[in-house]
Design a protein that fits this description.
Layout (H helix, E strand, L loop, with lengths): L2 H33 L23 H26 L3 H20 L18 H30 L9 H16 L4 H37 L1
Helix pairs in contact: 1-2, 1-6, 2-3, 2-6, 3-4, 4-5, 5-6
Length: 222
């Protein structure tokens, strides 16, 4: 396998990782919600509390939703670097997505101390503060990634049919947050995150579709 074929295969694996991240992240927080004590409220308590030190079955969020999903998003970012890295905007978008993936991974390591249902919960440890800082960086990097990738796709003929869906996905995150905020801040965060990972899955799907012709051509030429 030469370098070009290897990059095509790597890009297709990255696309599959984008699809899988949607499954692992949502499976992790849904199962995590179901595992919590009756007093825990998915509508009002933040999704990060599923991985707190006092949470029930915190691995569902920390290892499945955060660690594994973060690695999958990192792989997606690498694939998009190969696909769009010929432009500065493409490199910026892919690099920002890599940062978002690292942040998602770290979300499962920098744990909150407790849940709101715990008496005297303060979340003032170093790792709780690191969690809050990491979350802010991850959110910012995610939206920079989507905006930069959309701009890069608009300039590449093969990707021009994809870019309009990305701003729609960004708007969808905000709409989901606003609509579900009627149920509570926890519901708003969960709804927005579902839309966000659906956007990652869409990018993964398009990466698979865009690299398939190249793979077919390589096989035909071989």
């Amino acid at each position: 396998m030469d370098a070009t074929a290897g990059r095509v295969v790597a890009s297709r694996v990255a696309g599959l990782c984008g699809l899988l991240a949607f499954v692992t992240f949502n499976a992790g927080w849904i199962a995590g919600d179901l595992a919590q004590r009756p007093a825990f409220s998915a509508a009002h308590d933040d999704i990060s509390h599923l991985g707190a030190v006092t949470a029930s079955s915190p691995w569902l969020y920390n290892q499945l939703a955060a660690n594994l999903s973060g690695l999958l998003v990192i792989a997606l970012g690498i694939g998009l670097w190969f696909a769009l890295g010929s432009s500065r905007l493409g490199r910026l978008g892919a690099a920002a997505l890599l940062i978002a993936g690292v942040g998602t991974f770290l979300d499962g390591l920098f744990r909150l101390d407790c849940q709101p249902i715990d008496a005297g919960c303060r979340n003032d440890s170093w790792h709780a503060h690191a969690h809050k800082l990491e979350s802010s960086v991850t959110v910012g990097a995610t939206f920079v990634a989507l905006l930069a990738l959309a701009a890069a796709m608009r300039r590449v003929p093969r990707w021009r049919d994809t870019w309009p869906a990305v701003p729609v996905a960004i708007a969808g995150v905000f709409v989901a947050n606003v609509v579900f905020s009627a149920l509570g801040s926890g519901a708003a965060t969960r709804a927005g995150t579902v839309v966000l990972f659906a956007a990652f899955a869409f990018l993964g799907l398009r990466l698979l579709q865009k690299t398939r012709p190249a793979l077919v051509q390589r096989h035909a030429g071989g």
